[in-house]
Design a protein that fits this description.
Layout lengths: L119 H31 L6 E2 L2 E2 L29 E2 L2 E5 L8 E3 L3 E6 L2 E7 L6 E3 L10 E9 L6 E6 L7 E8 L2 E9 L9 E6 L9 E8 L4 E6 L2 E7 L10 E3 L2 E3 L2 E3 L3 E10 L5 H9 L10 E3 L3
Antiparallel strand pairs: 1-2, 3-4, 4-5, 5-8, 6-7, 7-20, 8-17, 9-14, 9-20, 10-11, 10-17, 11-12, 12-13, 14-15, 15-16, 18-19, 20-21
C-alpha cells in the first residue's frame, strides 16, 4: 500500500556509446541482422533467420541443409549476378536507328538513351495528320450528300421526322414553256407574299394560301413547290373559296406522290360537312389511281358523289400533271392526266360546299382526311372547262393567250 509519498525515482541512464540502445544491455554491435538481439552471427545463418548452431538434421523447412551449400549465399567461384565488377567496362549504347525517333534504341540524332523523353514533335505531327484525315473524310461525306441532292431527290426534316422524297429538278419544268407562267419581269419570282414566308402568293388573283405546320416550301428546278408529310398537319388553306362550282371551271396541278397506298388528295374545296370537289389519288380496285370527284348533294353521302378515274398509270414518285374540269353547260366532269383525257361522267351539278380552297387534304363527313404526301406546284384555277385540245396545249405549254387563269400559285 502507498503511504502517500512518491516512490523513489530511478531515472533511466543514457545509453552508453556503442551499446544496443534503449532496452538492450550494453555490448558490441549486433550482427544478427535488423530486428534481432545482438550476438555472434552463426556460420550458416541466412538473412532473416535467428542465430544458432547449424541444424544437424536438415534444419527443417526453410533452413539450409547441414554441411551443404547455402543457396542464399553466393558461391565464391561463381560471379555474383547482383554485384557489378567496378573494373568491368560497360558496353556502349547501340547506334541509333534512323527513321525510328524516340524509341530508345540509341542516341541517334538529337536522342539520348532509352530513358529519354519521347519525341513530342513527331507525336504532334502524327496527331495533326490524323486530324487532317478526319477533316477530309467529313468534307468528302458532305460533298457526297450534296451530289445526291443534286441527282434528283432530297429529304426534308420537320419536327425530327423525314419528309417524303420529292424531286428537286423536274425535267418537265421550264419557265419559258410553262403555261400561263409569270410575266417576263426581270424581278425574281417569289412564291410567297413579301414579309410572310408561310403565305403563298396568288400570281393571278388576290387569294393567299396559308401553309400548315407540316407543309414547307422547297426548290423544284429554278422555282418552288410545297412538300407535305402526309400527316394531319400536312395541308395549306386559302383565305376563301377560289372556285365557283356553279359555273364551268378547271383546276390543274403538277403532282409528285410519295405514298404507295391510300387516298391522297392534292386540291379540294370546302371545310363544312363535305367537299365540293377533290383532285388527287384514291384506292380503286385495290390500287392507287388518279381521280376527280365532285359532291352533288348537301349531306356528303357517297351516293351523291361522282368520280372519274384514271387507272393503270405510274402513281409513285412520278411527276404528273393532273386536270379536273367541270362543264356547267354539258353537266359533265372530266379528268386529264399528262394532257390526255382519262374519262368523263355526267352530273346533275356540284354542291356549293361552304369554306375555302384546300391543298393537301379533303373534308369527308365533317372530318379532314386523305392527307397528301409528296410535292406539288403549278396550281391554277381557270374559269372555263378544258377540252381535250386545251388539256394537250396546257401540257405542252402552248395555251392560247386569251385563256388565262383566275388564280395561280407556285408557278414554274
Amino acid at each position: 500500500m502507498s503511504d502517500g509519498t512518491n516512490p523513489p525515482s530511478n531515472p533511466q541512464p543514457e545509453p552508453a556509446p556503442g551499446s544496443g540502445g534503449y532496452g538492450f544491455p550494453p555490448g558490441p554491435p549486433a550482427q544478427g541482422g535488423y530486428g534481432f538481439p545482438p550476438g555472434t552471427p552463426p556460420a550458416q545463418s541466412g538473412y532473416g533467420f535467428p542465430p544458432g548452431p547449424p541444424a544437424q538434421d536438415g534444419g527443417g523447412y526453410g533452413y539450409p541443409q547441414a554441411g551443404g551449400p547455402n543457396p542464399y549465399q553466393p558461391d565464391a567461384h561463381q560471379p555474383d549476378p547482383y554485384r557489378q565488377d567496378p573494373r568491368a567496362q560497360q558496353a556502349p549504347w547501340p547506334p541509333g536507328q534512323p527513321g525510328i525517333p524516340g524509341q530508345g534504341l540509341g542516341p541517334g540524332p538529337g536522342q539520348g538513351p532509352a530513358g529519354d523523353q519521347p519525341d513530342w514533335e513527331a507525336m504532334a505531327d502524327r496527331s495533326a495528320a490524323e486530324r487532317r484525315k478526319k477533316r477530309l473524310w467529313m468534307l468528302g461525306g458532305g460533298v457526297t450528300v450534296l451530289a445526291l441532292l443534286a441527282g434528283g431527290g432530297t429529304f426534308f426534316l420537320l419536327g425530327g421526322e423525314e419528309h417524303p422524297e420529292v424531286p428537286t429538278d423536274d425535267p418537265a419544268v421550264s419557265a419559258s414553256a410553262s403555261p400561263g407562267g409569270p410575266s417576263g419581269s426581270a424581278a425574281p419570282y417569289s412564291p410567297t407574299v413579301e414579309g410572310d414566308a408561310t403565305l403563298l402568293r396568288d400570281s393571278n388573283g388576290k387569294i393567299g394560301i396559308r401553309l400548315g405546320p407540316d407543309t414547307q416550301i422547297a426548290p423544284v428546278g429554278k422555282r418552288f413547290q410545297i412538300v407535305s408529310k402526309g400527316t394531319s398537319k400536312s395541308y395549306a388553306q386559302a383565305s376563301e373559296a377560289a372556285v365557283d362550282v356553279t359555273k364551268s371551271f378547271s383546276v390543274t396541278a403538277r403532282l409528285y406522290n410519295s405514298a404507295a397506298k391510300g387516298s391522297r388528295i392534292a386540291v379540294s374545296q370546302g371545310d363544312g360537312e363535305s367537299f365540293s370537289f377533290e383532285l388527287g389519288i384514291d384506292q380503286v380496285n385495290g390500287k392507287q389511281a388518279w381521280i376527280f370527284r365532285v359532291q352533288t348533294g348537301d349531306k356528303g353521302a357517297a351516293a351523291t358523289t361522282q368520280t372519274v378515274v384514271a387507272e393503270g398509270l405510274g402513281m409513285v414518285k412520278t411527276p404528273t400533271t393532273v386536270i379536273g374540269a367541270y362543264d356547267a353547260e354539258k353537266k359533265a366532269i372530266a379528268l386529264y392526266v399528262d394532257g390526255k383525257k382519262a374519262g368523263e361522267a355526267a352530273v346533275p351539278g356540284i354542291w356549293q360546299a361552304p369554306g375555302p380552297l384546300q391543298l393537301g387534304r379533303s373534308r369527308h363527313h365533317g372530318i379532314w382526311s386523305s392527307a397528301w404526301q409528296g410535292g406539288m406546284h403549278n396550281i391554277r384555277v381557270y374559269e372555263t372547262a378544258f377540252s381535250p385540245e386545251l388539256a394537250a396545249a396546257y401540257k405542252e405549254g402552248k395555251m392560247p393567250a386569251a385563256t388565262k387563269p383566275s388564280h395561280s400559285w407556285l408557278l414554274t
